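Lab notebook, bench 4. Still working through the backlog of constructs that have no structural model yet. Next entry is a single chain of 399 residues. Request: give me the structure tokens for it.
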Amino acid sequence: MNDESEGSVFFRLLKQGYQKVFFENWPIWLGGLLIGIMSVITFAWARPWGVAGGLRNWGDWFFSLIGVYQHPPISPLVSTNSILTLGLIWGAFGSALMAKQFAIRMAPPLELIKGVVGGTLMGIGAAMAGGCNVGGFYSALSALSLGGAAMMAGLFVGAYLGLRYIYWELEHLPTGSSGGGRSAKSEGAFNWLNIEPYIGAAVFLFAIICASLYARQSLTKIGGLLLCGIAFGVIIQRCRFCFVRGFRDPFMTGEGEVPRGIAISLMISILGFAALKWTGLRGEQVYVTQTFWFGSLAGGIVFGFGMLLAGGCGSGSVWRAGEGQVKLIIAVVCFCLSTSLFKTLINASEGFKALIGKAVFMPYYLTYKWTLVILFLILCAYYLLATWNEETDKFTVEM
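Model written out:
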């Protein structure tokens, strides 16, 4: 084989690999597997994965900037909460560009209103539960916090109530749920799709440069978290992984693909967190939310209802905002503002803080062994019930 043919084979294989990664959606189970692994890596590197904390930091920064808050928060450029959330939207934006899926997508007026209301409710629920579907549920349960289990129950209730509303809306406001698409291109107009992959490559290159700049400023931990957040954004965007489907689909379509992905992901994350805490490499109380039981349960219900209105969970709204979906951009902005204000309200009242709840680290009461056994039984039941419901539609709610 001559040099020219070897070169053509190499570029053909490179092109095929690129198409496999960015032009074909990844399986949900693979997304769950990778999210679980990245969750453990992020915790081992610095801290657990979260989204709502970063959004709250942005809201705190905004209110401080306009004079509502007197004490400025940690800069979003060095806050670990902020950097992880920034990385998530950064990774989703770059991945959408590489896949030629980025576009400003407008939505009908009713959907924009739902973005406002849904984002606001998610912010309130996250403030009560100590985090969104990631921090209050996924990472909290991984950290062996009983608050995570309580929020899981609340998310199911909220998703069910939200779905009942969506059905009511479809029946009484049939034109309100139509989605927006790419705007029509006039004949002869420049096609941005052709250069989106190049812009996406530049976005990822800039991320590497920023991470190296953090390292040069002795902020290696922050730079590493930025790359972890970007990895989450790429994985979730390529898998179309949204936690809202894990709580909505069993009632709406009966599909069990995402619930199974969440169960697999959590099993991996729980094992990794437990190993890090049991060996003393990370503190046992890290990310054990002080929200059991009222804050987690009630916050989960409010958040679950809000995410059905918004059409995305905390992480799902962020990565879809990175794709250019205007409704979700609005939801994220409202999330930032409402979670900042409501968290400030909670902290201002000792009675309210006491009502929200306390931290419950399950191994203190059950030992590590029995905590893992119980959590794995819950997740196995979630996995099996989702699969059974997929075949029987037992839990599917009719309009």
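Notes after review: Residues 27-177+194-391 form one domain. The mean pLDDT is 92. Flag for follow-up if needed.
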